[in-house]
Amino acid sequence: MTVQYAPTSPGSDTSHAVVETVAGTIPVSALGTTLMHEHLFVTSEEIRLNNPGGWDEEKEVAAAIERARAMTDRGVNTMVDLTVYGLGRNIARIARVNAAVPELNIVAATGLYTYDGLPFPFIYQGPGSLMGGDEPMVQMFTSDIRDGIAGTGIKAAVLKCALENELTPGVERVLRAVAETHKRTGTPITVHTNPTAKTGLVAQRILAEEGVDPGRVVIGHSGDTTDLDYLDALIAGGTYLGMDRFGLDFLLPSDQRVATVAALAERGYADRMVLSHDASCHIDWLPPGAKEQLAPNWHHTYLHDEVIPALLKAGVTQEQLDTMLISNPRRYFTPAG
What we know:
The chain has a single domain, classed as Metal-dependent hydrolases (TIM Barrel, Alpha-Beta Barrel), CATH 3.20.20. Helix content is 39%, strand content 15%. It has helices at 45-50, 57-73, 91-100, 120-123, 136-146, 169-185, 199-209, 228-236, 254-266, 290-294, 302-313, 318-332; strands spanning 18-21, 24-27, 34-38, 41-42, 78-81, 105-107, 109-111, 158-163, 189-193, 217-220, 240-243, 273-275, 282-283. The chain has a 6-stranded parallel β-sheet. The chain has a 3-stranded parallel β-sheet with strand order 3-5-6. Helix 2 (57-73) packs across helix 3 (91-100) and helix 5 packs parallel to helix 6 (169-185). The termini are far apart. The model is unreliable at 1-14 (pLDDT under 50). Belongs to the metallo-dependent hydrolases superfamily. Phosphotriesterase family.
């Protein structure tokens, strides 16, 4: 089933805040319907460059352009591409896709994605390292936000880090570097977390220790669980819940994801959730064809084609959908004060 998502009025928004996109600065009020956790390309760039294998640049870019157009056909106005260091961010490639589909706002990210250790430049430099000194990650992330990425002038507008299982010293350094960058720049944060290990609560604690505004934080992948007590605890911490892996049915079937969102909406928590897929047009973590076999619904239009009708049937109102897809992203990207 294909649905053109037609939002009702999201309410007045008098904010004059702006947000950086791949194509330039836009008002936060122009974000529209926003998928808050997506990717175009997830690659191991060093391996791809030296062992290109079956990589075909033009074919992959063309496929991403087709997927971007499919998103806009469903009424999506903005996608937040959370591909950062460690996930193969290539901002020039993303810009090529955006140039072909200018009606889609693409928000770029900075940060570092790791489950345990740090890349060698950070092992030997920065706090507690052999060379010591200030945290180089803060300078790197801040430059991406203020000056632009890789000399392109395209500025990141969101910070990304990860806390999968164990809070290793390396992961903790990234979290605190992201927090410091947030305080210096006002840039909001999304954290990859694992609900099974309840790492969202740990991330909340560390970010709170660093003085981060919880209203500018999304605890990503919160939709991978049906544990309402855990989700209630995250909401009590003041952050948004990223219900952002629709289509990854082998982790949690979509009917259970829908039921969880509906239950939270019934409790009055629509204003604490954002929706997305965490999908990508290309990911080299799996062999060719494996993604389609393991998760055939894991793509950028599944939310609009199947999930939104299911949420409406489950009792979620159109107003609540607008809140999760429009109003919450606006607030997230609007600096306090």
